[in-house]
Design a protein that fits this description.
Helix 2 packs parallel to helix 4. The relative contact order is 0.23. The strands form two sheets. The protein has a three-stranded mixed β-sheet. With 166 residues, it is of the alpha/beta class. It is built from four helices and six strands, in the order H-H-E-E-E-H-H-E-E-E. The radius of gyration is 15 Å and the shape is globular. This is Signal peptide protein. InterPro entries: FhaA_N, FhaA_N_sf.
């Protein structure tokens, strides 16, 4: 990511953070879908076959309030987000690193209306083969460039965390 992209990302996060605090709006699924598409676009890497490889696992970190509200819709919401991600990958001729999977995690450090998307690549789906499992979020001071509305105490705007699994 170039200097201009980093500056643009920081400006976007700052503006979104101000609006999130001022209006205290809840995270909407369309915002999450948009952040997933943006993460795919930003992380696309050209492969030898002429297709671009993109992450296939997206961990959505939410505030306690947003987590409770959105996970009430459980697998249905996750399936809709997976379908949106697959449609975007197809339309852009992207090749995901494996089956697309969505995880929702709760992060007590986030405020209502603030979320982060952590893209990563895993060749195999989770052991259950289903979405809907949740796990604790490791604490990190690093903000994702794919966050819809980052917290006011945003850090230096580092790159999104995500290790490749095999």
């Amino acid at each position: 990511m170039g200097l201009f992209d980093r500056m643009e990302g920081r400006l976007e996060r700052a503006v979104n953070g101000v609006f999130a605090k001022a209006f205290r709006s809840e995270v909407q699924p369309v915002e999450i879908a948009s952040a997933i598409r943006r993460a795919m676009d930003d992380r696309a890497a050209t492969a030898g076959s002429g297709r671009s490889l993109v992450p296939n696992v997206f961990t959505i970190e939410l505030s306690e309030t947003d987590y409770e509200r959105l996970t009430d819709h459980g697998v249905e919401l996750e399936n809709e987000l997976v379908a949106a991600a697959e449609e975007h990958a197809d339309s852009q001729h992207y090749q995901p690193g494996g089956p697309i999977d969505i995880h929702f995690d709760e992060d007590a450090d986030l405020e209502t209306g603030v979320f982060r998307v952590r893209p990563s690549t895993a060749k195999r789906p989770r052991a259950t083969g289903m979405t809907g499992q949740h796990r604790a979020v490791p604490r990190s001071r690093e903000d994702s460039p794919y966050a819809g509305r980052p917290p006011a105490a945003s850090g230096a705007g580092g790159a999104a965390a995500g290790a490749a699994a095999g």
